[in-house]
Amino acid sequence: MVWTGLTALLSHWRRRPVQLAMLLLGLSLATALWSAIQAINGEARASYDRAAAILGQDRIAQLVREDGARIDQQVFVRLRRAGWLVSPVIEGEMRFGDVRLRVLGIDPLTLPPQAQQVDVAAGDELLPFITAPGVLYAAPETAARLTEQATPPVRVAEGLPPGTVLTDIGQAQVLLGAKDKISRLLLWPDQPIGRPPLKVTVPGLTVREPSETGDLARLTDSFHLNLTAFGFLAFAVGLFIVHSAIGLAFEQRRQVFRTLRALGLPTRVLVLLLIAELLIFALLAGLVGVALGYVVASALLPDVAATLRGLYGADVPGTLSIRPAVWAAGLAIAVIGTLVAAAQSLWRLWHLPLLAPAQPRAWARASERALRAQGVTAMVLLLAAAGIAQFGSGLEAGFALLAVLLLGAALALPLVLTGILHLGDRLARGPLAEWFWADTRQQLPGLSLALMALLLALAANVGVSTMVSSFRLTFIGWLDQRLASELYVTARTEAEATAIHDWLVQRSDAVLPIWSIEGRVAGQPAAIYGVADHATYRDNWPILSAVPEVWDRIAKGEGALINEQLARRQGLGLGDQITLPGGWRASIVGVYADYGNPIGQVIIGIDTLVRHYPDVSRLRYAIRIAPGKAEALARGLRAEFGLPAQNVIDQAGIKVFSLEVFERTFNVTAALNVLTLGVAGLAMFASLMTLSGMRLPQLAPVWAMGLTRRHLAWLELSRGLLLAALTMLAAVPVGIALAFVLLAVVNVEAFGWRLPMYLFPGDWARLAALALLAAGLAAVVPAWRLARLSPSDLLKVFAHER
Amino acid sequence: MLLRLHRIDKFYPTGEGPLHVLHGIDLSLEAGKSLALTGESGSGKSTLLHLVAGLDSPDAGEIHLGGTNIVGLNDTALAALRRRTVGLVFQQFNLIPSLNVAANLAFQARLAGRPDPVWLKVLAERLGLAKVLTRYPEQLSTGQQQRVAIGRTLAARPRLVLADEPTGNLDEATGDAVLDLMLSLVAETGAALLMVTHSNRLANRLNARVHLHAGRLA
User: Fold this and answer.
1) Cα–Cα distances in angstroms (integers) from residue A778 to residues A29, A667, A691, B147, in the given order
2) Of A81, A248, A386, A532, whose Cβ has the fewest other Cβ atoms within 10 Å?
3) Of the candidates A362, A703, A801, which has its C-beta nearest B92's C-beta?
4) Are B5 and B178 in contact (CB under 8 A)?
5) Would the CB atoms of B111 and A438 count as touching at under 8 Å?
6) Reduced to 3 states, what is the DSSP secondary structure of residue A376?
């Protein structure tokens, strides 16, 4: 009985291979996009975990300075003498040629066993490790990047995070120019008894408990949440196709269902058989989707890795590893998605009376009550969106707002389109025009899912492109303000820096130091910069709010400027006090825009910086000179000091680099947008193809009454284009609302900056053209088939009804 | 002579080779007259009706309608013929579900460029549809639906009405009432009527009848 029933059910698909292909394709694409995003996120998170776990930071407590500044090495000696089992670590960033790496210096003799990342004492390795020139341990991909750079000998060590080298603390101190300094102390888990308390021995230090997530994971959370949201949107759009294809197949098989039940197949068995059928499809499509997802993820990962490196300084490998958990999750989401998409149809079947009419329930006759219910749901969702916008806070509320807004708008679409088509109907003159509008309205329920998918994809495109273009416009303006100097030079040593400064003073209009230290401000990682009192800053700095005569106060050492993200995250404003590394306090005298920087930044006067941080690295300078003379000066600098090309960069070079980072940041978003639009186009194609078969009974009488097939085909094509155009019109306000939420809520929560919104109607026109092209392509095949249909096929409509 | 068929042959391709469904049919019908076409299922009645309507083309022979041989006309000319010269009444009515009764009634007349509100009103009254003009087809009984289909055809004042089992979907009483109406209205418009039917009883009510058997006129 079961096998016979299943055969009867599956025979439907044998006769409708295109419908089956659309179902499988929709599910595969939805799974592929979702899996790709999860694979990318998984790869990045694994990389952060490796970074967080280095030297056992996720298991061992550490002693650090609260302000993040470096600790005197004497502190280590004092603690050891007091009986504390501690091990010193120094950490910092440095450049080997054109490769920038995180250098980690350890003391192999005191390192706790839990922190043993690499067995540096294996064989005869210890002596070369602790004596000059030392040894650098690096992950294979990092070691490969160092092959052509002048470095101490490099050994490959698996398990180290990419972009990190491990070396002896003494060598690291030399490399980082931090003699007798350490960054932190690892506390052995088991300590001898009878030690004096830490507060007494090292009063300036605090214990940082082991943490499973590092700063990187926290910083990049919003980026990955963004990706996940887009992956989910693409998945949802794909599910529209699946829902549509399954719903249609159920409607087409009502007669089969009735016959099977009349012949004695229990409803329960019928429903189970349909679930089994769906599971077979879900697993098949899931497997294809997961494989496709791997390809998509491999294509996108290099851009994501570059973005994470450029934006957050996070090193993520550019190649994808196979993570069974991610792929199993992809398969699971395919199955869950299919069951969710089929739930409504299964529920209906379960409750269908045996003697219910076997004719396919005409979608075209979907009751107005159902439409009204959908409209009410849409209104409730849009009101909820308004409520969240008013009262919600946090990134999660931002994404909830996006979800509710998009879903509400999608549900409202059929109602809006019905209204517009009613209006068209009323204004139409002539029988064909009236029929066209009325028939389009009647077709709407059958196409509404595909159109809702199209609306989501178009609105996402309008929203994201508005956000990105607004960001780009603001960013370019900001770069012009921020990068006012003509040249930027980085010396290799402090002695060279002094010589360069002296050389430049006679040959340029101004030499402005770019000196900074890193530390923690208000519990957040931050950089503290010192600026000279110069018109470059007074005239150009992108100040958002400031007290009067702010630059005079900075020059006098009477305050600090902070960047927007630090101000927003910590709720800081003008007049508030902040504690800077070293424990001294400053009053906030201004807040400035600092786009593209994930961490906090503080600006103080250069004299104040040097006074509080006499060890600050003094290698970089900005040079002011007449633009026409900049190139000659750069050439002279390189020739005089033998500086590598990358150490003397002109303004344009930095702008190009910054814009490259910017563009790459949104490459992935743009790619996902295009893919989502493609999926929506496919949804429309699938719906039009399947509906085209059901349309013949409606079209054949009109043909019989005197319309040519070609005329009918043109009308069908026009119908597809009209609906796509109306959907595009509806997508614009939804997209603008989406852009507003992204700019005013999500970006502020995720990155800490708020951007002005600019509108780009030209982009919308291009998108509209693309949408019409997609709709045209989707509609042209059914229309072409109609135009080529033989009269005998149309006549079958009348014959079949006997 | 309004309609003249001369040596019409029609084949349908099948898996076992071409199926000869009409064999050298000769037939004629004068303006204002009615002719019943009877025959068992599969005898070729509907095929013949479709050929006359310009919905399909014969493989051999000529079909003269109002003096014009319609065989070989292109798609556009055939469509114009269907709009202006012939009117079709189907067994399944084939109303346009998205239009209400009034719009359905007027549809073909407007397509043909012959809208006549007075005539439409008369038709609606005579067909008993005046009170349901704002309803949609799905809201009508089958008898009402067939009356709308007949009204739609006659509203365009075609010279030839082609009816394919117009009462086949109705019970006997309703069918008789609908047929009475159709015959009297066709007579009023002066159109000729070619009606396909299984029923000898209904066929006998027309001016003449021919019987098709296995694609040949008996």
Assistant:
1) 17, 27, 12, 39
2) A81
3) A801
4) no
5) no
6) helix
Q: Which among A364, A700, A799 has the least Cβ separation from residue B46?
A: A799
Tokens describing residue A254: 């009502």
The residues on B that touch A, with CB distances below 8 Å, are: 12, 46, 50, 53, 55-57, 75-76, 78-84, 88, 90-92, 94-99, 103, 106-108, 110-112, 138, 164, 168
Contact call for residues A713 and A784 (beta carbons, < 8 A)? yes
CA distance B6 to chain A (A): 22
- Cβ atoms of A151 and A21 within 8 Å: the answer is no
Spatial contact of A454 and A684, defined as CB atoms under 8 Å apart: yes
Least CB–CB distance from B88: residue in A438, A704, A801: A704
Residues of B in contact with A801 (CB under 8 A): 90-92
Q: What are the tens digits of pLDDT across the range A770-783?
A: 888 888 888 888 88
The answer, yes or no, to whether the previous bond of A133 is cis (omega within 30 of 0) is: yes
Nearest by CB: A435 against B78, B99, B138: B99
Does position B146 have pLDDT exceeding 50, yes or no? Answer: yes
pLDDT digits (tens, 9 = 90+) for A717-727: 999 899 989 99
Size of interface A-B (CB pairs under 8 A): 93
Residues in chain A within 8 Å Cβ distance of B102? none
pLDDT digits (tens, 9 = 90+) for B96-111: 887 889 989 998 898 8
pLDDT recorded at residue A270: 86
Q: Quote the ipTM score.
A: 0.77
CA distance linking residue B105 with residue B120, whole number of Å: 7
* pLDDT over 60 (residue A63): yes
pTM here?
0.71
Residue A558 contacts residue A587 (beta carbons within 8 Å): yes
Residue A776: what pLDDT? 86
Closest CA to A352 of A239, A253, A440: A253
